[in-house]
Amino acid sequence: MYKFVVLFICMCSVISAEQINQLVINKNVERTIDLTSQLVKITATITLENTGKDTVRNYLIVLEPDTVGNLSYISVKDSLKEDLKLTPSKVEKHEKDVYSVQLKQPLATGRTAGIILEAVFTKGLVPYPNSITQKEKQLVRYFGNHYFYTPYATSKQTTSVTLSSRSVESYTKLKPVSQSDSTLTYGPYSDIPAFSQDRMIVHYENNSPFLTVTRLERLIEISHWGNIAVEENIEILHTGAKLKGPFSRYDYQRDTGSSHHSIKSYRTILPAAAYNIYYRDSNGNISTSQVRTRKDWIELELRPRFPLFGGWRSSYTLGYSVPSYQYLYRKSSTEYVLNMRLLDHVFDDMHVEELETKVVLPVGVTEVQIKTPYEVQRLPDGVTFKYLDQFGRSVIKLRKTNLVEQHIQDLEIVYHWRSGLLLLEPVLLALALYVLFIIVIIYVRLDFSIHKPEHAKKE
């Protein structure tokens, strides 16, 4: 029977139901909505107060119904910016996107506490119009809520909306509201009831790269000879406004402006110790890429064979090697620990729709344990054969959807392996060569001819 163990740090698989404590209020909420990229990043600094007689240990977070399915990442910290435990929960009429935050210290009556909520949403910006010509600017619309959506009453609230451009077509005007350069400020609003909603619409220019990784296959191959090989097969799609009309290479080369909705190139970050870097597509190696060595990383500029407009897609393979001593540690004579990223940087403000990470373990590993930084789907293990392998190597397969940069965290794999297996393939190769030489020596000394040579008859 197929068995596996996956440990989760941030989430709990058991979803409990909780009651809303009406005696907890949001004394002040300062919310920031970042719309400078293709992602919607919301940060809320909340000052909560316990007006009841009982001690409060948990705080509920309920996301808006319109955002169900778009949430990619969520975290909560206290005023000292230490992570707080976040557990999926349920409340009445809200069964999805409800989380219970466990406070570091129970909140006594009459006391206040501060927490910081960070959430990242994908597919929250809609191109409008949805198709444009080559020379037009890209306009998008954001649909949100003027109020901070919460199951508690809010005494005071302010919202700042940060845009990528000062060019704003229109925005809803729930007074008081003001615009300063590329920032919209809503509020302060006072005495807001729980679960308040009022539609916010912002229509503005956003030419940042709307580049989505539709599928990423990440292969990590471990070798105890001192090398770890990494290869990524990436499929990308421009999810911005689609190109309307023909494409003119002449006009495109004449357009030297940096603010353009098409994508000529983008940067990716590799480990500082990476070497043997290659970048190719189905046609072969792409020589227009550039590698720049920084102090703590390697910057690789990737330039597709053709610029990407809305609706256009491309695919490529990126590979490199890193020394194993930086990621593979030996705990005992037979126990090893691998700490390596489950997902690595592809481009800034990336959105990965589907990730499949495969880890190829050495021959003969046993007692494999996996610890992931967040909840993932464990696929059935596979088996692969490499050069001179007599026995198959185990392949661990992990799958995750809807990822962003905050998901770039380490995967930990613990396994047992005997170092004597390192000599198995060289010994087998030496034996094979030895047997081959013996056969050749015997063969050249045998005489299979029917007639004896004439010089032998004369004698």
TrEMBL record:
<keyword id="KW-0732">Signal</keyword>
<keyword id="KW-0256">Endoplasmic reticulum</keyword>
<keyword id="KW-0812">Transmembrane</keyword>
<dbReference type="GO" id="GO:0008250">
    <property type="term" value="C:oligosaccharyltransferase complex"/>
</dbReference>
<protein>
    <recommendedName>
        <fullName>Dolichyl-diphosphooligosaccharide--protein glycosyltransferase subunit 1</fullName>
    </recommendedName>
</protein>
<feature type="signal peptide">
    <location>
        <begin position="1"/>
        <end position="17"/>
    </location>
</feature>
<dbReference type="Pfam" id="PF04597">
    <property type="entry name" value="Ribophorin_I"/>
</dbReference>
<comment type="function">
    <text>Subunit of the oligosaccharyl transferase (OST) complex that catalyzes the initial transfer of a defined glycan (Glc(3)Man(9)GlcNAc(2) in eukaryotes) from the lipid carrier dolichol-pyrophosphate to an asparagine residue within an Asn-X-Ser/Thr consensus motif in nascent polypeptide chains, the first step in protein N-glycosylation. N-glycosylation occurs cotranslationally and the complex associates with the Sec61 complex at the channel-forming translocon complex that mediates protein translocation across the endoplasmic reticulum (ER). All subunits are required for a maximal enzyme activity.</text>
</comment>
<comment type="subunit">
    <text>Component of the oligosaccharyltransferase (OST) complex.</text>
</comment>
<keyword id="KW-0472">Membrane</keyword>
<keyword id="KW-1133">Transmembrane helix</keyword>
<dbReference type="GO" id="GO:0018279">
    <property type="term" value="P:protein N-linked glycosylation via asparagine"/>
</dbReference>
<comment type="pathway">
    <text>Protein modification; protein glycosylation.</text>
</comment>
<feature type="transmembrane region" description="Helical">
    <location>
        <begin position="421"/>
        <end position="444"/>
    </location>
</feature>
<comment type="similarity">
    <text>Belongs to the OST1 family.</text>
</comment>
<dbReference type="InterPro" id="IPR007676">
    <property type="entry name" value="Ribophorin_I"/>
</dbReference>
